[in-house]
What does this fold into?
Amino acid sequence: MFGERGGYDLKYRSIATLLQQLRESVIPVPAVVDVVRSGQVTARGTVAGSIGERVVDLLVSASDVSAGEVDAIQVTGTVHADRRQIVCEATGR
It folds into this structure.
């Protein structure tokens, strides 16, 4: 998904598709996000660094998210990932 360095502009009509692709890559997805049933996701950002030391910085927004018993959630946030950690900060309404 983020194999090449450069800028990315990703759009997913299905959060389920995105989560499946992340699970099939080397990015661990915690089971707690399995409560998310549907929604659309947009991510814009960059990938830098060498092959063994990739650094990913993304601005993420999601709309019409359904999670558990709650529908129509709007989420915005940032993701910073490198070989040692993934840091996510988000707000929702």
Q: What stands out?
A: DSSP finds one helix and five strands in the chain. Residues 15-24 form the longest helix (10 residues). The helical segments are 15-24.
